[in-house]
Sequence to fold (825 residues):
Amino acid sequence: MNETLAAFGYWLARVLLRPLIAVTKYRVAPEAPARALGLDPARPLCYVLPQKSWIDLFALERICREQNLPRPQRLVFHLPGPGQAGFLYLPALAEARGRRTWLSQLLEAAARRPGYDVQIVPVSIYWGRDPGQETSLFKLIFADSQQAGRLRKLVIAAANHRNVFANFGAPLWYREQLARLSDPARAQRRLERALNLHFLRARSAALGPALLRRAVVIQDVLAAPAVRRAVALEAQRRGISAAQAQARARKYAEEIAADYSAATVRVLERVLAYVWTRVFKGVEVRGMERLRELAQAHELVYLPSHRSHADYLLLSYTLYQAGLVPPHIAAGVNLDFWPVGGILRRGGAFYIRRRFAGDALYTAVFRAYVDGLIRRGYAIEFFPEGGRSRTGRLLPPKTGLLAMVAESALRNRARRVALVPVFIGYDKVWEVGSYFKELRGAAKPRESAQTLLKATKILGRSYGKAYVSFGEPQILQDRADAELPNWRERLAPGGEERPAEFDAFVRRIADENMRRINAAAVAGPVGVVACALLAAPLRAAAEDELVEQVGHLLELLDAWPERERLFVPERDARAALDWALPIARIRRVPHPWGDLLVAGGRDGVLLTYNRNMVQHLFALPALIASLFRTRGILSEEAILTGCRALYPFLRTEFFLPWPAADCETVARGFLERMQTSGLLLRTADGRLRRPDVGSREFSSFAVLGRLVGETLERQAMVVLLLADERHAGGRLQREKFEQDCRMLAERMAVLTGREAPEFFDRTLFAGYLDTLIEVGVVTQGAEGELAVDARVARIAERSLELLSDESRQTLRQLLARRRPSPASL
Fold:
């Protein structure tokens, strides 16, 4: 009788809920689950839902039908056969544990059939993406919950039917579980535990922890012991009352704290979906499946490259679309203006001042806020470069916020923390025109509602595609185990003392993150075309010749180490050029012998931004080509020796991912690829020579050699100036020396018509100097004084051999005619 009533209720519910299920809008992760999960269509399949819910089951039936998956069938009487699928609710496994049920009998029957196996696929259905607020009755009612009864579940489904997310987990094989534990009952218990853990982690990754009201978060920050001590010190230092100091701390907390709202995130997703379709021709995402697995067992800290204000919106949008909870984002306080500030704050932004060294109270409040985010398990995002790159290159990372996050995570004994590098690139950055003006000396425009209104003009333009690529993460605790001895005792919960080597530890993590960003780069078609065209004389090339050069560059990417992590959206050279022409505004000059393509004037300068995003991918083969500038034939050992000598400088400037010890192996891989492409030829005596001058390959070889010409020129400037200063014998201060390097580069840029703004970027010269210090050619004293080894003269002479005749002559003339350094007088 009970079974009859249950069956009648089931079919009645199916009929009544059919209209609701029909209008439900859902998103599935992973996309195309059958292919992504590697499901075997010839094997039986069983879906597992975390709780008993007919609404979830009906939604699953529709999703399976539309995703070309076997539809779930009841398992009461028989096991699913090949190509069929059953379903069960996780609680049924618990019921079968203590007593004999229909499910326990089926599992025993499956165990008795040696050739029978079933793919067990956990499926989570989320109605809405709101984790709920711990102190909000409204949210607790309408946010999806595993404890919801039938009536409340119906209300939740009705309220959130336009925002349903279905997460299919990796399949478990029943026979594999049984092989580990020969007893079916024990295998069943093991399976139940594995599924329980999966559902808990999947929910945490998709929805995140429950949210606290902003007022509660602020009160928690103000109650932190470190903040209370800072308030007392502030009152004493400024001679104000404790209440006034407390009010100042509260003001800081109000300025910082996010006000995360799932409803705002949902609205922003719809708005951004409209914007992206108007501005971009698509958003390409790579590495999401690995990230989804990582999120199940780790707290995530996203550390992306920063090239546009679109970055934080694009990353949060990408994560939300993929079924992962968007992070809390550290944003510059300059973005906290009406109306954007409040919207971003409700989308997860918390605000940070550009500089707050010396303000102990602000530091304590901000640190306490970050500590709370880590302690509660929220995903965090911040840009380690500290600001947007105006040149397209990665900037040297800043370590202040990373140090706070690392210390908090290690002290709080939180879940393992994964630091996730993210490459964000564009076929065209919409602020690039503003960057061009800033690098030419114009003031940076102040963010305001007025500039926001002006920015709406981008909606009428096309910027190609955007690219988001998630790189190989660093697990913070693993790095600490390897590099911070006894860190668990030295970074105890509630403590404030840091190990002496902690800052160096954070610096290594920061540098490694930048290298992993570049290892996950996307070789977009506009960037590859820019590399070829900007390396051509006068930024002009015949169209057919440019196609060949782009093709050779694309072939070289096959030799990139860990090639599977590198994404090349367009492998066909002609298609890549056709895509880039309108986006980069490359001018076509008709000619009877074949059209010419020119990146002229301002458009050519703006194109350097795209080149700089991917230039590092060709740095080592370009160096190899440069070694042939003054020699037509070289032995392989001579080439490898040159690579070993100069690779540290390339690694510093381009954040190349492999260590110096691996340089030779990587170089050999590129040498082999260059021979296959005809860019190098093997002589009868085993040496390597460049292509014949009249050959098609020589054109590509010459372009490749010029690709790092400016890098080699800057490196030559540094060592030539050092050799000159050593010969003069005066006192050499680092700050003054870096300034001289910049002035020399500025002068050379004017005399040789260089328009790339990064040519005289002071941070690049500082990086070269750091590399010389690292290899022992230069030593630096406590007060910044530099001592130069005699080897620098030989290095300077060798560096000149890699330059063009024009650059070599110009540099010698500039050094001979420069005014004496005041330090040497």
Notes: Residues 134-138, 821-825 have pLDDT under 50 and may be disordered. The radius of gyration is 31 Å. The first strand starts at residue 26 and ends at 29.
